[in-house]
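Task card 7
Instruction: Convert sequence to structure tokens.
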Amino acid sequence: MDKAVKRVRAHLLISGRVQGVGFRYRAQNIAQNLGVRGWIKNCWDGKVEVVMEGEEDKVKKLIDWCYQGPRSAEIEKIDLEWEEFKGEFTNFDIKG
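Output:
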């Protein structure tokens, strides 16, 4: 029997030029391809907020992508918090 796969939850606040550059749609596509679940949304202050859950290596791949974003994005800072895995999502959705 295989070792249990570690499932994790990450909460990100991404600052910089991250709105109006296709960030949410590209992140959703990558998350769906990786099997990561959660949501992403634009915030009123120009940031993008993401909550994601899944297998640890796949979540880390999506986080790595967030540090680069789409070609026209400019990432200034990411606030990252690891939270307790809840398993509450069935998809990776764009909110708002």
